[in-house]
Specification:
With 351 residues, this protein is an alpha+beta fold. It is built from nine helices and 18 strands. A hairpin with a 2-residue loop joins strand 12 and strand 13.
């Protein structure tokens, strides 16, 4: 999925630490070379953002693990070609094109993610909306021609951005109203990360980190043999860090409005929309970060991605209620502004 600037921006910084100190002891040279830990790192662009995959490997496994990384990258790009609503040839674009006209055969990945997205819609009291395309469009977050739409356009967009008008019949998807648009900007990137991780694990990789535009999943240990460290950016000072978290076998996703916004007649408008009102989310929080344990969910990054999007719209009590219903180990870090330069951090856990 080509996730452009109009969709969620994630605000995580990955801390990279120095390579481990390796002693030149009396160990045999051949064994030392074969067992030496190395870090394979590859960057690429997909889904409208920059990605990075890191794998802790050994010299003897370098070629095999590099091939696994390449296959993971191939998988992400394959999904981008299916889920992007900015590529005319994608399955999503075809479904959107025939909205109100006829059903379209759906790719298995699209069908799987769509069904999961509809579950999130119900779970979050309609705050997560995979049919939000018409709302994003009228505000100019697709073509960058930002504007504040009229009341009539807003009313129409709310009507069209209704997942109840999505009809799934075996392997076809039909958007029943002309002008409806699927938009997987809320969980497509997370799904891409999950699928890339499946590829790595299938090829025997036990220590890795995947960073998709700042959304991160990590398994095992880093090259120093320790848990991976992730820093949360300070929403007020982007070169600063407000909190460092250590993760192992976990997925982390942050949503915020201040990275992608526009001013219209002097007023600030963020890109995270409330699908119930077709207007920017009205919240006192600058960001929310969702951390889920990978072992608790089959698609942990997808879960974290969707929840972080919905939680930016919901209030604290509503967030806690969703966490309780979903189960699993979920932690949410909320950042609130106090005055001009002070921040307060709230942490919610369901365990």
């Amino acid at each position: 999925m080509n996730k452009p600037a109009n969709l969620k921006f994630i605000i995580l910084i990955l801390f990279l630490f120095a390579s481990p100190f390796i002693l030149n002891s009396c160990a045999k040279p051949k064994k030392q070379t074969a067992d030496k830990k190395i870090e394979i790192k590859k960057s690429f662009y997909s889904m409208g953002t920059f990605w990075e995959i890191k794998v802790v490997s050994a010299d003897k496994n370098k070629a095999k693990d590099m091939e696994a990384v390449n296959l993971a990258i191939k998988r992400v790009k394959e999904l981008d070609g299916i889920l992007s609503n900015f590529k005319p040839s994608s399955n999503v674009s075809l479904i959107n094109e025939y909205s109100g006209i006829k059903p379209v055969k759906a790719n298995p990945d699209l069908l799987k993610l769509l069904k999961l997205s509809l579950k999130f819609y119900r779970l979050t009291d309609n705050s997560f909306d995979v049919a939000i395309g018409p709302i994003m469009k009228i505000w100019g977050f697709y073509d960058k021609k930002y504007t504040v739409p009229s009341g009539i356009k807003i009313k129409k967009a709310v009507f069209l951005s209704n997942p109840s008008f999505i009809e799934i019949n075996k392997n076809t998807v039909f958007l029943k109203k002309r002008g409806m648009m699927l938009d997987f900007g809320g969980d497509g990137e997370g799904y891409g990360i999950d699928e890339a991780l499946f590829v790595l694990e299938k090829h025997g990789i036990k220590n890795a980190l995947i960073n998709g535009g700042g959304q991160i999943t990590a398994i095992g240990k880093n090259i120093n043999g320790k848990n991976w460290k992730i820093g949360l950016l300070n929403p007020l000072y982007k070169n600063g860090v407000i909190k460092v978290i250590k993760v192992k076998n976990a997925s982390v996703e942050t949503s915020a409005n201040y990275e992608n916004h526009f001013f219209y007649k002097g007023k600030y408008y963020g890109h995270i929309m409330n699908p119930k009102t077709a207007t920017p989310a009205n919240t006192s929080f600058l960001s929310d970060t969702v951390i889920v344990r990978n072992t608790d969910f089959k698609l942990p990054s997808t879960v974290a991605d969707a929840l972080s999007c919905a939680f930016f719209i919901l209030h604290r009590k509503e967030i806690a209620a969703v966490m309780k219903k979903l189960g699993g180990h979920i932690k949410v870090i909320l950042v609130k502004r106090l005055g001009k330069s002070r921040l307060k951090i709230y942490t919610l856990k369901n365990y």
